[in-house]
Amino acid sequence: MKPLEPIDHSALKVNQLLIIILLLIAFIFSVPVLVALVSGLMLGGSLLWKRPAFGWVYHRVLKPLGWVKPDAIPDHREPHLFAQGVGGTFLAASALTLFSGFSGVGWILSWIVIALAALNVFGGFCLGCAMYYWFNRFGIPGFTQSPPAGTLPGFRPRKES
Q1: Helix ranges, the chain (H)
Q2: CA triplet 12, 33, 90: central angle to 5 degrees?
Q3: DSSP for 93-132?
């Protein structure tokens, strides 16, 4: 198991808020290509760049302007990347169904991602992170991290005093 590293939870929240906003715009204006774009960025962030898909907005715009303050907490990066990958996969399925003419199913899949991102931003619970930690508990290969001490799977770790 790797040691905890400082994870900027402000970058994660900005990422989730932008996902919510972009998916709401896609739904309101019926723009399936925006769903596909968000999916691609989320999957790229998880699989290629190993960072939040929209972390650049936080690091290059919001943080330098002082609009959002850093919130580094000792945590594991892997569960967050896994959660983003799960969301990106749901959105890929959403985009495919939207482009195939099954708009009801496609928008339901997008709304699942919106709801879970909102639960994370406003409730402090990440279902994808919880799944990662549960897979670790079941001994599934590739899921090597356990929740930080004193943290329930999927909940935001507490800052050390």
Answers
A1: 9-28, 32-44, 55-57, 78-99, 103-123, 127-137
A2: 50
A3: HHHHHHHTT-HHHHHHHHHHHHHHHHHHHHH-B-HHHHHH
Place of tokens 């723009």: 31
DSSP 155: B
Q: Are 136 and 143 in contact (CB under 8 A)?
A: yes
Q: Which amino acid is at 108?
A: I
Q: What tokens does 1 get?
A: 């198991």
pLDDT tens-digit readout, 83-101: 999 999 999 999 999 999 9
Q: Hey, what are 63's tokens?
A: 């943080």
Q: How far apart are CA 18 and CA 14, in angstroms?
A: 6
Whole-model pTM: value is 0.95
Domain boundaries, the chain: 5-124
Number of neighbouring beta carbons within 10 Å of residue 25: 12
